[in-house]
Each structure stands twice: as structure tokens, then as C-alpha cells.
């Protein structure tokens, strides 16, 4: 009994004998078959499968258009271009995100402005956004943190009032609902990522969904060097071979090989989301009574697809800091992570002049948060192992216990 309670970090037996990652893909034989079929076909890239994938993604989220990109970051870059962002413009975003949500603003020569997060949902605070709006503000990039939609209603009210474009970073929120509506059809443009830890994967990949035809056309052209062959758009026409590069775009295309994987994965998305919700529910139930940790607060308006499950440590009830608890969980073979180091705290952002104490709520969350494993192919045993390890470690460091 004694050795079972002894933490692995102190030489005890780990809860698991094998390492459980915090997230991973779920690829089955159907997925593999879909990819192999494309490998045997005429087009490996820029063929018919890309458009099919785009049509299916758009239909799934209820948007008119979807434009696939080589990754989510490229898709965000495309959306900042389509929004017309330029030098001198400011864009308000959250620091509690992956760097790409802010980097895409800098790619266009514009300036990210970091608004603080809500202390309960950890999503960008509309009040903080409002306080940062200036005549230079052109857009808002909210992030649906962990899968819980940002306060899109209040954000849209601000966008309407100040004539701002909303680009939603929904890398965490494929399959999430906001006020009963699927994420992907609400904001001016919405980005999803198909990185292997996200809800569905294409290896690398991303997409922008939109209801706006003008954005759609710009995005299509941007991801392919700024080139068009569209007769209606050509300024000149030298003959059937003729195309025009009308602005500086990039090669940000997704391949048909990847799109085939995407189409096959999309068929399983509802099942994946259902599993994620079930596991989150198991965690909520298991941790509800533990006063040393706070489980994720969910608003009435949101139905999260649970990309991440984060626990927040109530450090005044613990004899160890986040780092020690993190390391202890890792030694129990639980793949923990931290989402996120606030973007303005990253050395590059520090170098370009961002103050380090800009967003107290985000900075405080960063000190207290740990991400625990959550992915659809986790077994019941995996989930129980995580719960056992969290309880074991928290119990050990609890001041009361
Ligand atoms: C994953 C992610 C991205 C970037 O997506 P990639 O496909 O990896 O480029 C952007 N924002 C957030 C919040 C993400 O989680």
C-alpha cells in the first residue's frame, strides 16, 4: 500500500508503466485506404479531392465557403491578408494562445495588441478588447480556448460598432457550438487546424471558412502565389496558357493526399467529439470535489468539442508549485503539457518591445495551469490512470491532506 502511494518522482511505482501522450491522432484502415487511392490517381495535389474536402468542411460547419491551406498558421496568414491588414494597423487578440494567432498579424506588417482574458472562461475579455480599440484597430482575433467558444456575441457587437473584421481562431473548436450554432459560420472568417493533436488531422493542414465571397476569392488566390486564371479577373489575356500573378501570395496549398485523409477523418468527427465530451465529463466528475484544483468553467452559451482539458491549481492549498506537480505527473507517465505561455512572454515578443505584465489574468493562469491527456482513442483505463495520477499527486502535495 505504501509503495502505491509513494510518488514515482520519489521512487514509487508509477501509475502507468507506459507513457500516455496529452493528445494524438486516430487513424484507421479506412483513412489509409483513402490516402492510397489518391496515390494511385492522376492528381497528388490541386486535384478534385481538395475541392471535395472544402465543400464537406463548409457543409459541416454551415458556412458558404472553405479554403484549405497547408497548415492552420498559413490559413491565419491568408485571413489577415484577405482582411486587408497592413502596416500601421492594429489587431486585438488574446495572449492565452499558440504564437500563430499573433504571428499572422505581424506577417502582414500589422501590430498585435493583447487583451486580457476572462478569469473564469480564460477566453478573451470583450471589456478588455473595448478598452484597447483605437482608430488604428482593424480586426479582432478571438481564440476559442480549449474548444469553448469565445464571447462571440459581445465581440460581434464591438466589431459592428467600430467596423472591425473578426477572424476567429477555432483551432481548438471544430465541432463546438455557440448558442446552438456550429463554430465556423459565425465570424467573418474562421480558422481550423488539422494538426495531429486537433480534432481531425491531415498531417499538416488548415482551413478558413467564411460566408463572404470576396474573402473567399482572395484566400484562393493568396494560397497559390497570388495567381489567377479566372477569365473575369484577368487584366490582359495572351492566350489559353495565360495566367496572372496579381499580388504577392504564397504556396500554401494542401495536397490531395492530405485532403483525402481529411475527408475520411471528417466522417468520424462526430464520434471523436462525442468521445472527447465523454472523457471531459469523466474528468469533471472525478475532480469536482477536489478543492486543490479548479475544473474548466463552461458558459451556458457554449457546447465545447474539448480540444484540451486543463486543470487549474489552487496553489494556496498546495505545498508545491506548478513545476513540481507537473514533473510529478510526468513521472507517473502522464503526458502533461502547459497551454499556454502567454504570447507576449515569448522572447521574440519581448525583444520587439512588449511589456511583460500586460495581462494579469493570463499571466496568473499560466502559473497555475496543467493540461492533462484528452484524445478520442483514450481507453477507459487511460482515463482512470490520469484521474488516479492526478489524485495521487494532488493528495501528496495537499496542505490539508
Ligand atoms: C494549432 C493551433 C494553431 C496553428 O495551427 P497549425 O496547423 O499548427 O499551423 C493556431 N492557433 C491555435 C490556437 C492552435 O492551437
UniProtKB/TrEMBL annotation:
InterPro entries: DegT/StrS_aminotransferase, PseC, PyrdxlP-dep_Trfase, PyrdxlP-dep_Trfase_major, PyrdxlP-dep_Trfase_small. GO terms for biological process: polysaccharide biosynthetic process. It comes from the Bacteria. GO terms for molecular function: pyridoxal phosphate binding; transaminase activity. Pfam families: DegT_DnrJ_EryC1 (PF01041). The modification N6-(pyridoxal phosphate)lysine is found at residue 198. Keywords: Aminotransferase, Pyridoxal phosphate, Transferase. Gene3D superfamilies: Aspartate Aminotransferase, domain 1, Type I PLP-dependent aspartate aminotransferase-like (Major domain). CDD domains: AHBA_syn. The active site is at 198 (proton acceptor). Belongs to the DegT/DnrJ/EryC1 family. This is Aminotransferase DegT. It comes from Halalkalibacter okhensis.
Amino acid at each position: 500500500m505504501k509503495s502505491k502511494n509513494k510518488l514515482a518522482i520519489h521512487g514509487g511505482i508509477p501509475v502507468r508503466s507506459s507513457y500516455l501522450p496529452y493528445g494524438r491522432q486516430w487513424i484507421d484502415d479506412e483513412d489509409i485506404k483513402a490516402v492510397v487511392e489518391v496515390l494511385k490517381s492522376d492528381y497528388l495535389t490541386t486535384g478534385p479531392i481538395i475541392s471535395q474536402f472544402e465543400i464537406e468542411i463548409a457543409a459541416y460547419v454551415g458556412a458558404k465557403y472553405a479554403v484549405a491551406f497547408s497548415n492552420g498558421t498559413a490559413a491565419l496568414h491568408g485571413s489577415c491578408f484577405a482582411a486587408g491588414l497592413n502596416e500601421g494597423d492594429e489587431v486585438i487578440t488574446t495572449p492565452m494562445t499558440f504564437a500563430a494567432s499573433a504571428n499572422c498579424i505581424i506577417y502582414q506588417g500589422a501590430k498585435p495588441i493583447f487583451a486580457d482574458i476572462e478569469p473564469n472562461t480564460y477566453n478573451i475579455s470583450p471589456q478588455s478588447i473595448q478598452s484597447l480599440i483605437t482608430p488604428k484597430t482593424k480586426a479582432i482575433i478571438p481564440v476559442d480556448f480549449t474548444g469553448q467558444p469565445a464571447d462571440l456575441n459581445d465581440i460581434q457587437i464591438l466589431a459592428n460598432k467600430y467596423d472591425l473584421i473578426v477572424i476567429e481562431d477555432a483551432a481548438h473548436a471544430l465541432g463546438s457550438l455557440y448558442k446552438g450554432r456550429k463554430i465556423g459560420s459565425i465570424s467573418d472568417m474562421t480558422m481550423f487546424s488539422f494538426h495531429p493533436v486537433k480534432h481531425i488531422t491531415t498531417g499538416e493542414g488548415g482551413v478558413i471558412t467564411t460566408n463572404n465571397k470576396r474573402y473567399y476569392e482572395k484566400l484562393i488566390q493568396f494560397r497559390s502565389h497570388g495567381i489567377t486564371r479566372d477569365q473575369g479577373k484577368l487584366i490582359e489575356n495572351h492566350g489559353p496558357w495565360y495566367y496572372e500573378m496579381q499580388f504577392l501570395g504564397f504556396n500554401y496549398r494542401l495536397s490531395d493526399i492530405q485532403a483525402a485523409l481529411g475527408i475520411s477523418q471528417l466522417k468520424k468527427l462526430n464520434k471523436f467529439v462525442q468521445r472527447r465530451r465523454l472523457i471531459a465529463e469523466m474528468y469533471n466528475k472525478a475532480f469536482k470535489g477536489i478543492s486543490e484544483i479548479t475544473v474548466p468553467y463552461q458558459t451556458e452559451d457554449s457546447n465545447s468539442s474539448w480540444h484540451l482539458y486543463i486543470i487549474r491549481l489552487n496553489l494556496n492549498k498546495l505545498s508545491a508549485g506548478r513545476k513540481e506537480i507537473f514533473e510529478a505527473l510526468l513521472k507517473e507517465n502522464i503526458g502533461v503539457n502547459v497551454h499556454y505561455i502567454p504570447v507576449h512572454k515569448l522572447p521574440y515578443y519581448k525583444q520587439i518591445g512588449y511589456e511583460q505584465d500586460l495581462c494579469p489574468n493570463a499571466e496568473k493562469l499560466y502559473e497555475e495551469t496543467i493540461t492533462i491527456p484528452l484524445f478520442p482513442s483514450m481507453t477507459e483505463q487511460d482515463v482512470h490512470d490520469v484521474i488516479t495520477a492526478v489524485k495521487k499527486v494532488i493528495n501528496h502535495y495537499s496542505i490539508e491532506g
